[in-house]
Amino acid sequence: MMRCMAGLARFPTIEAVVDGHQLMVASGGPERLDALMTLITTATESLRVLFYIFSDDKAGVRVRSALIEAAQRGVKVWILVDGFGTAGQSDAFYQPLSDAGVSFARFLPRWGRSYLLRNHQKIVVADEKRALVGGANVDEAYFDDAAPGGGWHDLFLKIEGPAAPRLARYFDSLRRWMAMERPTLRGLIRILARRSDHTGPLRLLMGGPFRRMSPLTLAIKQDLEHGNCVDLVQAYFAPNWGMMRRLSRVEARHGDVRIITAARSDNNTTIAAARHCYRRLLGGGAAIYEYLPQKLHMKLIIIDDLVYIGSANFDMRSLFINAEIMIRIEDAAFAKQMRQFFAAHLTHCGAVTRESHKQQSSLIARARWLVSYFLVSTLDFTVTRQNLRRL
């Protein structure tokens, strides 16, 4: 049962079996840390670790120590981190890992415009049998719900089954690409396309800087076009008008759209950008809520009997630029559990109505929202896409 303690919302761990996979969804910070540490400490053969952020703090040191201990007991350990997400972080933090025999590399494309492309994925694979995918980084704020400045509310999906070795093969392809003397954008796109699944109840879907739509974005687009009951929990919500039209069409065909966005974040620009979208969505009949207890970092999409969990936000950078991963799970029973999970969040949200939004929509506020949306969804997207196409 859901309960509130010290102003923080707690939600039950969700477990399910889908297409031969044992699934577990953990949303609390301590539960996510426990899932990660268990994967590391029980590994006997191999560990593949990919994070956008791997901080030099209490949580980072604890995870680093566990990885070193794994290497010392004979486990082969590979670690990839994003160059932008760990920008400014000295290699000295990772040196003890290298000294223990861990293979370490940063995702830092050598094109002179490395800040443009980011690997935003979070993947851990143990023994090619068990895996974690989600939105949480290795940082104290993601594992301590009461961390100074506020913890992040997020998800980890644990997968035990046939998808784990597929994730391992994707990781290996990415690691080999990063080790190339001159890694090309075209080579990365080929990896993202080849390692995405096109059939099956549980699919790995990759996003990235494709010239058209990535497998991830195309799947979301197609599922929205046929969906009748859509629930989104999105930390960063700033889609283009095309995606918003698809959400509005769900309501137009007498479906339901409910969206939970962030009331608290580390970036007020992203909140303002989301609020710029509210008027159009509310006018189309969508129900919008803002999550209050913590900073929101979750990426969850539920469309009828489909569930997406992973690293991608519902914004232009995640849908069209960053390397991202979402797990698409088609199972009515699991979707029902996740919809109950979504509904349990509503008591911890502030509802955004047409009336309340109108009251907040002063001229200054609307201008700030518009500028924020332009920066997040237009300027960043346009400049990045134009420069990547030159590579």
Fold and architecture overview:
With 391 residues, the protein is α/β, with parallel strands linked by helices. 40% of the residues lie in helices and 26% in strands. The chain contains 13 helices and 22 strands. The strands form 5 sheets. An 8-stranded mixed β-sheet has the order 3-4-11-9-8-5-6-7, sandwiched between helices. An 8-stranded mixed β-sheet has the order 12-21-19-18-13-15-16-22, sandwiched between helices. The protein has a two-stranded antiparallel ribbon with strand order 1-2. Strand 15, helix 9 and strand 16 form a beta-alpha-beta unit. Helix 1 runs parallel beside helix 2, helix 5 runs antiparallel to helix 6 and helix 7 runs parallel beside helix 8. It is globular.
- Our measurement of the CA-to-CA distance between the termini, rounded to an integer number of angstroms, reads 52 Å
Approximate shape: globular
The largest sheet is: 8 strands, mixed
**Unreliable sequence segments:** 1-6
Number of helices: 13
Counted beta strands: 22
Spatial order of the strands forming the largest sheet: 3-4-11-9-8-5-6-7
Mean pLDDT: 92
Computed CA radius of gyration, to the nearest angstrom: 20 Å
